[in-house]
Structures are given as structure tokens and as C-alpha cells.
Amino acid sequence: MQLTVWTYEGPPHVGAMRIATAMEGVHYVLHAPQGDTYADLLFTMIERRGKRPPVTYTTFQARDLGKDTAELFQSAARDAFARYKPQAMLVGASCTAELIQDDPSGLAEAMRLPIPVVALELPSYQRKENWGAAETFYQLVRALADKTVSAAPREGRRPSVNLLGPTALGFRHRDDVVEITRLLGALGIDINVTAPLGASPVDLARLGAADFNICLYPEIADTACRWLDKTFGQKTVRTIPIGHGATRDFIAEMAALAGVDPAAALDDSRLPWWSRSVDSTYLTAKRVFIFGDATHAVAAARVARDELGFEVVGLGCYNREFAREIRDAAKLYGLDPLITDDYLEVEDAIAKLQPELVLGTQMERHIAKRLRIPCAVISAPVHVQDFPARYSPQMGFEGANVLFDTWVHPLVMGLEEHLLTMFRDDFEFSDSAGASHLGHESTAPLPLAGAAGGGSVATLALEETSPPLTPPASGRGTWSPEAERELLKIPFFVRGKARRNTERYAAEQGIAAITLDTLYDAKAHYAR
Amino acid sequence: MTVLAPVRPATGADCAPVLRERGQREVFCGLTGIIWLHRKVQDAFFLVVGSRTCAHLLQSAAGVMVFAEPRFGTAIIEERDLAGMVDCNEELDRVVDRLLARRPDIKLLFLVGSCPSEVIKLDLSRAGQRLSLKHAGRTKILNYSGSGIETTFTEGEDACLAALVPDLAASAQGAAPELMIVGALPDVVEDQFLRIFAQLGITTVRSLPARRAGEMPPVGPNTRFLLAQPFLGETARALEDRGAVRLDAMFPFGAEGTTNWLHAAATAFGVDEMHFRSVIAPGRERAKRAIEHCRAKLDGKSIFFMPDSQLEVPLARFLAQELGMVPLEVGTPYLHRRHLAQDLALLPNTTVISEGQDVDKQLDRVRAAKPDLTVCGLGLANPLESEGLTTKWAIELVFSPIHGFDQAGDLAELFARPLRRRDVLKV
After folding, report:
1. Chain A residues with CB inside 8 Å of B30's CB?
2. Would the CB atoms of A40 and B379 count as touching at under 8 Å?
3. Are strands A88-93 and A55-57 parallel, antiparallel or unpaired?
């Protein structure tokens, strides 16, 4: 048993729902107890869909268990078929139904429905959401792809590809598809099928007609791409076009496969200039911690180091299936990868490293908020605000623009917040000072006047009113009150680093009590 | 005034025949109750023994609450737990030991059963006894089931409170009559009721659940209890088994419901009628004034309740009687006729009462009836809105303070706001 409050991934049948909901003409009959319908609201609320997910639940109750839950399953499947008239049906069990051992596959087969019925085996006690989505997509592709279809000879026609992986409830999948479609258009490449998002079973039947596949989200499409390679001999483009450089690599890889000129699609991003402009100088070597699904985390690390000039100090993912990708990437940055689905471990790592920016999921956003570290979201799981109304892809050149703005924004806000705090106690800025440009005499007394200039009163006020701004980094070394006060004068977004450096310096020098001098000696020691 | 007035038997008033349906039910399971119960009982922890689905449900339903060090969690059953039951019990002990070591402030631990734990017949009551012995003197360990196969949404609270009842102290023999308010209410609402009862001269009033594990009320034949919520069938039965007597009343929604509810207690405790009227007059007037703000918007509008929380019947009564709305169909996951007799009697006889659900068929009825307002869950609200039907999402009615005089205006506003919004939007 594993004690948990928060999980990065839902159960595998939620992954299957993401595939069914992404597609048209597919209906999923899920053998599940009453209550499992909660998953519907992920789609209607977080993704704000205006349609119910195409899922029928058997919603069996305790009183049904003594009777025939198998019959319940069949009548639910029969009703769903009659009502929704899907082109294909998925059938499967959720975690509880897995235990009662009705056999959705056999039961559905016995009904002899006049449409393809794909049975899903999703081991709920071993696997999770992403795996469930990948397996479902793979099973659908395997069952529905017409093996007699193949790509026409290349002469006299544009190359054509399948765009694979985008789903319902995917982080920015909607806009990534638009961006990559636009990019392919610029290169003169046609899209044969985009799946599962927006595809129908009829579309899946035509998969074989493409020259090659683009695996946009390996977590979802990798298994299906391997099968398509084996079955139709279709190569797979594996570069993930997140970031300026990766998008260029993606274009190069694709252009080579398709035999087209990459130039038509190159260089369409503001990121390189924005990043080179002097305003961005202060981004240099900002220490950044990155956590998410493996694909987004690996891509983010490259953008962070090579395109924004950050220092990547932590890299990890929650999906073990892609641990190898994270390990390989971590080597590039000289890091130990963090592969865990326990958010407490992630929190410990962040607290220990004291990064200046966290790139992560919804959970890291809250961890960073608690630790007062700026943060941006780069990966699912995400909340409703990360299914925005505006166009905001992560992929392609426009995606690179979005990344730049999204990641730099919390840092700029950090600088603003620091300046406001620094000037908060200046008498001219206090609430009681009134608006001087209107020429009115201030009616309120100026209780803080004596403290103008950042003297001891202001520092004391800060100590009394603020919660501790940074937790001790390591517990090594005892800080003298004087040194502690001096530390508080350092902007909060570099304070963690200063504390860490000082404690490391103290430990190396064998200094037990950290004084004002230790603080500044350490500063000199680490000066660049 | 301590003389107990004879308790009126339930009227058993009947109403139009109930439409009973079986089919897909679009409802939460009882685990969801944890989300408000853990806020109410401040030193209790709710440990769900279940699957990843249970954990995912709780975090989806709790929203941002899960980031605030909540006092609930899930012990996720894994493949190896399913291999052998002995192992499963040892694992549970290990999880509980670790949890209590990390949270020594926990005085009451609920082991909450789920569908998987019920289906594999993991005996949580025995586990509770075993662990209670081990942690005796520090933490009491109880259990109940919030599984979807046994409980629907608010029935989780019923199961939890019913599990508390056998554990309540017995009141002294021949003790003076005491009033118990049963059902978790927001603290602010509970305080309002306590003030009114004090003004009425009913001296000892206790709540189940109490705010702390050590302050749970005693129970005995001297206990008269008022249900604050309509979904507490099991809890009421357990209290009656211990000799307590239920006071039959409408549920305290709106001016009329609250008056009737308070009056049931006043009658049972022999409070003088004139005194009762003078005490409640200010609150009742305030409630009526506050409700009046929404009347123009709601009067004559039709409303359709999909089943969710069992609050549907008393809320439909409030909207029909006090705001002039026309309830077309009032769906409830479970109809506790005896407790709802007075509210049911006041519903228009054209209203269809439905118990249980076949969601597709019920949505067909919604589309055919085109109600002005449909009360439904979040899985259905946006899809109905996109079809042009105005909705009020039901869960808010469980999480917001809506009971009593001083919340009557807010309650009416919850239903008026979607209609007002529909009228102001020009997009």
C-alpha cells in the first residue's frame, strides 16, 4: 500500500477516456461502480468541453453484486450502441470491476455488435493514466488500421504524414496541433490523419496511406508508432518540437524524410532575439528545477540551458515508463535524475536545491508558492487555467515565443515584488502618506519617518510581520542574529541561493557560527 | 419547561407516485463526503483504503484543498496487496503507524472503505479494533464505507456519523432532556442556530459531529434530535437504537423551513409559543426580506433537479413555496420518505418525484421539458449549457452555507445568479 494525498496520474481507464473523448464516433462502455463517473468532470470542467465524454458506465451497486453484473454490462453496452450509434466501441473495466472478474471482452464479443469492438485490458493496480491512454490508442490503431492500405508512389504528389498523440485533456494539445499543422503546410507536407484528437475510426483505417508518422507525444503515441513502423514500414519523427532549436531539428528531420526543402519553414520565432536582448542578461545562470512528464521535462531542460541561459539544477519526471529518456537527458546536465511519483520527494528536492525558478506541473506550482519561488507550468497535470481560451501552443516557433513569455514572466514579477517590498517602508510610499502630487497636506502622522533609509526599524518590522521567507537549506551552521538580518536585506529570489552558498562555505571552512563576516566571505568566495 | 412534550409521530403524508429508475447514475460516491467532514472535525483524519481511482476522485473533487495539508489521504492498494489478505492487513498497519507518527495531533482516525476494499472484503472494522488497541489512549480508530457501490455522495456523511453513534457516551439515567443537531453544518451556521436555541431557553444543545473528537455529544433516551440534513437515514436509525427521539420537521431552508425546524424543537422542549414567535421574528423577517430580492427573477420559472445529494426535495420545497418556482421533476438518489414527509407534502402535486437514475433517459426528459433552470452535477452542466439550457451546478449547495434564516438570501441567490447571467450576457 502506498499512502498518498496527491497523484500525478489518474488510473489507466482515465487514459482510455482521454482517447475516446478525443475521437469522434467511438464510444467507451466502462464496467465501473457508481461514483466513477466523477472522471467526466475533468473533461467538462478542466477542459471545458461542451459535450459529455462518450462514456457509458455500468455504475453497478452493492445490490447488483449478488446478481448478474455481467447482464448489467451487456444491457449498458446494448443501450449505448442503440443510442449513440458509434462506428467503434471500446469496452473495459475500472479497478473495481477488474476485481469482480466479469469479462467485458467476452461479454461484448457474445453480443455480436455490427461494429468493431475493442476490448481493453488495463491493469489498474500496476499501471496509470498515460499507460492507459497509450495502450488504448495502440489497441484502436491495431484493430482499425486497414492493412491493405499503403502509401501511393511518391512521384507527382506531396508527402503525407500522420500526426499522432494529441488527446483530450492533454496539456496544450489543441494548439500544438494547430501550430504543427501550420508548419507542415509551410513545408508542403500534407497531413493524412491526426489522431486520436478529432479522428474517427474511418480515419484510423487510412493510417497506412501516410509516408511517415510524427510522434508528437511519446507518452501516448509511442506504442502505436512502433506498431505502424513494423506493419506499414512507416518511419517515425521522434524529435519533440518544443523550443526554438528543437523545432529547427524537427524540421530538419522531417524535411530529410519527406525530401522537401526545410528553408520554407525555418526561423519564425522571436525567442532568439528576445533572449539576446540586454533586458534578458539577468536571466544568465538562473538556477532552474524542472519536473513533469518526461517529454516536456526533457524539452524544457534544453530550452532552459541553451535558449534562455539558465542553469538546470534538477531534472525529473513522474512517469517511470520514460525513465530512460530522463536519465539520458540528466547526463547532459551532469545531474542525478529524479524519477518519482511522490510529490513529497519532489518538494524535498526543491527545498534542498533552492532553485530560483521551478518549471513543473500544478503540484510544483503549489510547492513553489509555499517555498516562495517563482514558477511556471510546463506539463500535465494542470488545472483549468492551463486550458486557456487564447492561442498558446508549446510546440513550434510560436510555442517558443509562448515559453519565453511564460517562464520569464514569474521572474519579472519576482523583481517587481522585491522592489515593492524594498520600498514598502519608505515614508513616501506608505498608505498614510497621501498622494503628494495633488498638493494636499497629509492628514495622517508619519510613524515610520524615523525609519526612512532602511534603518533598523524597517528591518524589525519585516521580521515581525513576515513569515520566514526561506526555510533553512541544510540546517548546517548557526546563524547569528546579525547575519540573519543581513540575509533578509538580500532580495528574496536570490536569498535561498545566498543562504545555501554561505552554509556550504561555512561547512567547507569548518565554521560553526555564521556571522556577518562569514556571509560576506562566502559572497566573495563565490563571486563570479 | 423541562417537561417533554409528547413527540408527534411522523405524519407519513404521501404524495404523487415516485418514478423509480435503474440505469447509469451520474453521481459521486460517498468518499466525497470526506472533503467537508475533515474541515468540520478538526482533529480527525480520513484514510481511504482504495485504489488510484479513489485518490484521483478525491483530488478532483477537493480542487485546491489538496494543497493545504488536508487531513485525508488514500492508502492505495497495489498488485502485491491483492496477492494475499494477510499481507494487506500488515500493510494497512504499517501505513497507519507511519501516518500517526507523522501527524501526532490526530485524535480520531477513520478507515474509509471503498469499492475495491469492499469487493476484496478487507475487514476494516477488525483492522480498526486492532489498531485502536495498538494506539489506545492517543487515537481512536473507527471505520465506515464511502464506497460507490454502497453510498451516493452525501450518504458518505451518513455512514461516517452512523459509525460515530455506537461510540458516543451514554447520558446519565434520568438526565434532563437535551437537544442534538445532527449533520455537519458550517461553523457560522451552527453558531447562529446555537444562539437562537439559547434565546429560546433550550439550554443544552450539542452537535453531531462536534468540532473536536473529544467533544462528541452523549446520547440516551433524554436526547431529542433534529436532523439538519435530509441524507442521514442510517445515523437517525442508530441514534433511535440508543433511545434518542427524532423531532419531525421540515429542513431548515428559507424562512418557512427554518421556522418549522426551530418550532419542532421549541414544541418538544415546551417553549411558550409567544416567546418562540418573538425570538425568531427578527431572523424570520430578515430571511423574508433577503429572499424577496430574488423573487422577481425566480417567480414562475420552472426547475428540474437531477439527483445528487438528497437535498433536492427540501430545496424544491423552498423554491416552490417561498419563491414561486415550478419544480417539474425532483430527482433524488435516495428518497427517505419519513424524514421528508413535511417537505414532500408542500410540493405542488404536478411535480414528478424520481428516485434513482437512468441518466440518458432523464436527460431526454430535461430536453423535452426545457426547464428554465436545471440543477445538475458538473459532468452535465457545461454540456447542457452548450445545448442552450441554463444550469445550476449542484455541488455548491453542499459546500456553501445555505441553512437557516441568515443564509436564505444567499440560497435564493445561488439559483437566481445563473438566470441573471443568462440575461446579461450579449455573447
Report:
1. 35
2. yes
3. unpaired
User: Between chains, do B150 and A62 touch, taking CB under 8 Å as contact?
Assistant: yes
B177 DSSP assignment: P
CB burial of residue A30 (10 Å; 0-12, 13-18, 19+): buried
A-chain residue closest to B120, CA distance: A99
- Residue B80: per-residue pLDDT: 87
Give the model confidence (pLDDT) of B233-288 as tens digits: 999 999 999 999 999 999 999 999 999 999 999 999 999 999 999 999 999 999 99
**B176/B2 Cα distance (integer angstroms):** 7
Q: How many CB atoms lie under 10 A from the CB of residue A364? A: 26
Interface contact flag, B92 A1, Cβ < 8 Å? yes
Local confidence band at B87 (pLDDT 50, 70, 90 cut-offs): confident
Q: What are the backbone dihedrals phi and psi of residue A279, each rounded to the nearest 5 degrees, phi first? A: -60, -25
Residues 6+ apart with CB under 8 A from B134: B93, B97
Among A258-267, A283-292, B100-109, B164-173, whose mean pLDDT is lowest? A258-267
What residue type is A189 in one-letter code? I
CB contact under 8 Å between B72 and A59, yes or no, is no
Q: Residue B385's closest chain A neighbor by CA?
A: A50
Establish whether the linkage from the previous residue to A196 is cis, with ω within 30° of 0: yes
In the three-class reduction of DSSP (H, G, I as helix; E, B as strand; rest coil), residue B101 is classed as helix
Q: Nearest by CB to B148, which of A36, A39, A40?
A: A36
Question: Which residue in chain B is spatially nearest to A61 when comparing CA positions?
Answer: B149
CA angle B249, B252, B254 (to 5 degrees): 125
CB contact under 8 A, B79 and A65: no
Backbone CA torsion sign across A366, A367, A371, A376 = negative
What distance in Å separates the CA atoms of residue B38 and residue B156, rounded to the nearest whole number? Answer: 12
pLDDT-above-90 percentage for chain A = 72
Starting at the edge strand found earlier in the chain, the sheet holding B178-182 runs B205-208, B178-182, B223-227, B245-246
State residue A425 phi and psi, 5-degree precision. Answer: -95, 0
Mean pLDDT estimate for chain B: 93
Instruction: Average the pLDDT over B106-113 and give the result.
Output: 97
Instruction: In whole angstroms, give the CA distance from residue B53 to residue A7.
Output: 10
pLDDT digits 0-9 by tens, B354-376: 999 999 999 999 999 999 999 99
Q: Crossing angle for the helix pair A492-509 and A396-423, nearest 10 degrees? A: 80
Q: State which H helix or E strand residue A223 sits in.
A: helix A218-232
Stretches where chain A sits below pLDDT 50 are 435-474
Question: A55: nearest CA in chain B?
Answer: B24
pLDDT of residue A432: 55
CA distance B402 to B409: 9
Percentage of residues in chain B with pLDDT exceeding 70? 96
* Catalytic site residue from A261, A279, A328, A517: A279
Residues whose CB is less than 8 angstroms from the CB of residue A442 and which lie 6 or more positions away in sequence, other chains included: A432, A433, A434, A436
Cell reading at B62? 477537493
Q: What's the pLDDT tens digit per position in A457-494? A: 333 333 333 334 444 444 556 899 989 888 887 777 77
Q: How far apart, in whole angstroms, are the C-alpha atoms of residue A192 and residue A207?
A: 7
Please report residues of A whose CB lies closer than 8 A to that of B28: 35, 38
Q: Measure CB to CB from residue A125 to each of B24, B78, B94 and give the nearest one.
A: B78
- Peptide bond before residue B217 is cis, with ω within 30 degrees of 0: no
Of B67, B95, B149, the CB nearest to A366: B67
A152 vs A195: CA distance, rounded Å: 21
Test B56 with A11 for CB contact under 8 angstroms. Answer: yes
Q: Crossing angle for the helix pair B254-268 and B187-200, nearest 10 degrees?
A: 50
Locus of grid cell 482504495: B50
Instruction: Look at residue A487 in the predicted model and tell me its pLDDT.
Output: 86
Q: Is A286 helix (H, G, I), strand (E, B) or coil?
A: coil
